[in-house]
Amino acid sequence: MRVLITGGSGFLGSHLCDRFLAEGHTVIAMDNLITGNTRNIAHLIGNPSFKFIQHDITNYIYVKEALDAIIHFASPASPIDYLKLPIQTLKVGALGTHNALGLALAKGAKFLIASTSEIYGDPLEHPQQESYSGNVDPIGPRGVYDEAKRYAEALTMAYHNAHRVDTRIVRIFNTYGPRMRLADGRVVPNFIAQALQGQPLTVYGDGSQTRSFQYVSDLVEGVYRLLQADYNQPINIGNPAEMSILDFAHAVNEATGNTAGIVFRNERIKGDPQIRQPDITRARSVLHWEPKVTLREGLKETINYFREVL
Length: 310
Ligand code: UDP
What we know:
With 310 residues, the chain is an alpha/beta fold. Helix content is 38%, strand content 18%.
């Protein structure tokens, strides 16, 4: 296959480039580099099966080659990023997705979009099944991302129904691993960077809010399987191992040997979900997929990466 990966030099996009190349496919990575970084794909430059195009996909996308699949991962994805880039976040979810779907239609390519657990908002149903329609405040600070992704899902289903584009929707829950940006503001890089510098970890609120952290290789495996599967409905990909942010902070301090402890900060963004856990029944039955990497193993790899970057 020849595959276009939008957001191809971002955290997840670059790992997907690696995986598709390792499977023998040809990859075109596209990124405008507002949150992506060419460092993530530097090791691929010179590979004859790989090409990078710097382009903002909210503008018309031109690709001269035939394409078999488009993996649409371009978007700011950290709450801090989409607070700083609210209009870009909305535009890439709306106009960027429209352009990417138009390209899929023109090329007769499969289309897979990165959606998110954020479409469930601050959920009133727990764990979150794909049938749950969510609890999102459209004009809240996180709404720019949540609504962009909800619109992107709607547009994807519309292209599937109206134009018969062969589409996939993956709803990604919190994912971590090497190549996350040190300063992207999310809890994993924040805590690891603080711990490696011997600082106390900044827990926002009382730390009772929960997340379920998945290691990046599990996500990549889920995405790869979903593209091969004949399945057009949304599918959750995440690790159901839910924990409080306070327990996560303790886990990071333990894994790094940091003795500086924890400080509590009143910095929760309005609408910060209190609970989050994927129900992965659908992924188990449709994709025969489930996460394999434990938090202990995943943290070790991620800490080693951040140690090099710092
Ligand atoms: N958080 C925290 N300390 C930090 C950064 C984040 O306690 O330094 C909390 C944040 O309030 C949220 C959770 O960690 O409840 C996960 O935040 P993140 O930004 O990683 O992503 P989210 O899952 O909210 O999209």
